[in-house]
Structures are given as C-alpha cells and as structure tokens.
Design a protein that fits this description.
The chain has helices spanning 8-33, 44-98, 105-125, 226-316; strands spanning 135-136, 144-153, 159-167, 174-175, 188-191, 197-201, 216-217. It is mainly alpha-helical. The protein is elongated.
C-alpha cells in the first residue's frame, strides 16, 4: 500500500512561485520595449501626452530654423550698413582734406574712387539666402520682406506664427533700376553754408532711370572749387543721416526677430525636456517593476527549495 503525503507548505510555496513567474513574464516585455501597450488602459495618458508633444517640438524646431534665417538676413543688412557708413564717412574726410591749400586733389580723387569701388562691393556682398536689403537690381523695386519673428501656442496646442514686415525701401543704398530709390545713387540738391547751390550724388550704378538732369557725381580734380567741395561735403552729411536712419530701422527689425528666436529656443527646449522626462519616468517605472518581480521570483524559488528539503526526512521514513 502506498501513501501520498501532501505538505501544505510545499504546495503554498509552489503556488507563489508560479504566480511570481507569471508576474515576471508580464513585466519583462514592458521594461525591454518601454513602448508596448498591452491593454487599452495601460499607460494611455502617458503615451497620449508624449505623442502630442513630439510633433509640437518638431513644429517649433522648424519655426526656429525659419527664424534663424530671418535673423541672418537682418544681421547681414545691419553689418553691410555699418561698413558702408564707415566708408562714406571716410570719403567725406577726404573731401575735407581736399580743401586744404596745396592739397593733391587728383591723388585724393583717386583714393575716393577706390573707396567708391569698395563701397559698391560691400553693398553687393550684403546678401544672405538670396536677399539683399541694400541693393535693387535692374528691373526690380524695393519690396516688403516678411520675416518669421515668433510663435505662440493656444490652449488646444495649436501654433500661431507671428510675422514682422520690413520695407526694404528704408534700407536701399543702391538701385540699378531707379537711381532715386537708393541713398547712394539718388541726387541731393540744396544750398551750402556759403550760400552756393549744389546737386550731387555719390555713386553711378548705371540705373535704368538715372538721376535728374543737372545732378553731378561726387568727384574732384585740380579745377574743382572750394564752393563745389562744400556742396559735396553737405551732400554726404545728408547721405550719412539717411544711412543712420536706415541702420536704426534695420536694427529695430533685427531686435524683434532675434528676440523671438530666444523665446523659440526656450519653447522647444521645454517641450523636448517634457517628452524626455515622460519617457524617462515610464522607463524607470518599468525597470523598478522588473527588478521587484525578479527578487520576488527568487524568494519564492528559495522558499520552494526549503520546503522540498524539509520533506526529505519524511520521504526516507
């Protein structure tokens, strides 16, 4: 006759070990993939938030890139204006030197011609991404440039793009279409401090629509009179005033664009940080669960082993 012994402690340990193994099987896939949603309610809020935030972060990044291009265009115009203004001021200084007794006016005019060429090159090189706020080509006119300045979000998560308009007529220095559109190509008429009328322009850009008849380009030689030089100096005073005004307009637009860029960087950084924290939180939670289940499984296995060992003396009997 055989006898079957049922030890309650062994049965209980076996049951708990089986439950621990099942729990470990459920947790392991989540910790490995961190993105598997096995039930309808499993981490639904987490994935909804993170999935919504990721496209927003990408959209903000695209807006920031467009903003950086706009900032580069305005920066290029500002730098070009700064360099051009410095050259015009040096030309005016040369004209003042030309009034001195015994001055080599032909030599001074050669220096002025060289600076004019340099000035034209600065204006032409003030181009970024195909945009040049300082020059108008033949067949063109000054235009209104629309720049992406900033972005705002509404309560529903929608993005609103804010634009800044800049009229390049305020910054055009050279026009190859209409000389009157450019600060350096238009004629300035007036009367000098000595009461002598003048009508001069600084650069001849071969515009399709040239300056009015009677206007003369600023240049000197040994026959140029002191009154004529006074008129040229007065002309450049007015040119410099208009250039400083153009610089102020460009700088104002530049501040609006670059200020929005700082805000965009902050928005994108906050969005990316939020997504990162959500992902990290979920990953850490799954890892902790996996570790806990592994420890629990090991404890149950140890308990089953202890129960089996305790049965050995009885089995020998």
């Amino acid at each position: 006759m055989s006898t079957v012994w049922l030890n309650p402690s062994v049965a209980g340990a076996a049951s708990m070990a089986s439950a621990a193994a099942s729990a470990l099987d459920r947790v392991t896939p989540r910790a490995v993939t961190a993105a598997v949603v096995e039930t309808e309610t499993d981490a639904s809020s987490y994935w909804s938030i993170s999935t919504t935030m990721r496209p927003g972060s990408l959209s903000t990044g695209s807006v920031q890139e467009a903003n950086e291009i706009a900032a580069a265009v305005s920066d290029t115009a500002a730098l070009g204006l700064e360099q051009a203004t410095d050259i015009v001021a040096r030309i005016q200084q040369k004209l003042v030197l030309a009034k001195a007794v015994g001055a080599d006016r032909n030599g001074i005019n050669a220096d002025i011609s060289q600076m004019k060429a340099e000035l034209g090159q600065v204006v032409e090189d003030s181009t970024f991404n195909g945009d040049n706020w300082l020059m108008v080509e033949a067949g063109g006119r000054p235009k209104v440039a629309s720049l992406l300045a900033s972005v705002t979000t509404d309560d529903d998560g929608g993005l609103s793009i804010n634009m800044v308009d800049f009229d390049t007529a305020k910054s055009t220095l050279v026009s190859r279409e209409d000389a009157g559109d450019g600060v350096l190509t238009r004629a300035y008429a007036g009367t000098s401090l000595g009461g002598v009328p003048y009508n001069y322009y600084l650069l001849d850009s071969q515009s399709r629509e040239p300056v009015e008849a009677g206007a003369r380009e600023i240049r000197i030689d040994s026959r140029t009179t002191g009154d004529e030089i006074d008129g040229m100096i007065s002309t450049l005073n007015r040119v410099l005033i208009d250039m400083v005004s153009a610089s102020a307009e460009v700088s104002s637009t530049r501040s609006q664009v670059t200020g929005g860029g700082v805000l965009l960087q902050g928005l994108q950084g906050s969005s990316e940080l939020g997504v990162s924290r959500l992902v990290d939180t979920e990953l850490n939670e799954q890892r902790v669960r996996l570790t806990a289940e592994k420890v629990h499984d090991q404890l149950q296995s140890s308990a089953l082993n202890i129960a089996n060992v305790s049965m050995t003396p009885w089995l020998k009997l």
